[in-house]
Amino acid sequence: ILLLIRNPKDVATSFYHFSNAMSPLPSYETWDDFFVAFMTKKMPWGCYFEYISKWNKYADDENVMTITYEELKEHPVLGVKNIAAFFGFSPTEKELQIVVERSSFQSMKKNSQKTHGAFGNLLFRKGGVSDWKNHFSEDQNEKMDKAFEEHIGRTKLGRKLKYEVYCKA
């Protein structure tokens, strides 16, 4: 099992934009309305912190590899090499470069209409890290920091998220 996780502030930001663009999902008039729903477990797919907490008990299983979105953005070649090794593949350097290139956000966004049809534009917005800084108020930042520490900060997956690096203003 490949478990891809992302820091909670960027998850919230990304899901806010996705929810407002996807008509079957609840939309939110403001970021503040969304943030309250996110923090009070009123998301269509459940609570982020509970999700990570549940997966944390499997973090050391030999058949589970956890990688972060941020890790893949920083070191895509190493990330792909590690994923390939986990699944027992040994790609050549050429194959590795092709996978890295085709799995880049820019490439996936460019091909999104072909690969995902009408949903392509909805699924691929920015693909960056730290867009949360454009949305979170100081109070929201403090609430998210507190929730992170209370729920997953001291867990293996919590540490893997490098919260101090990606989620501190």
TrEMBL record:
Pfam families: Sulfotransfer_1
InterPro entries to which the protein is assigned, alphabetical: P-loop_NTPase, Sulfotransferase_dom
Molecular function terms from GO: sulfotransferase activity
UniProt key word Transferase: yes
The UniProt record lists the keyword Transferase: yes
Keywords attached to this entry: Transferase
Signal peptide coordinates: none
EC number(s) on file: 2.8.2.-
Residues annotated as domain Sulfotransferase: 1-155
Record PANTHER family: SULFOTRANSFERASE SULT
Family in the record: Belongs to the sulfotransferase 1 family.
Protein name: Sulfotransferase
Originating species: Spizaetus tyrannus (black hawk-eagle)
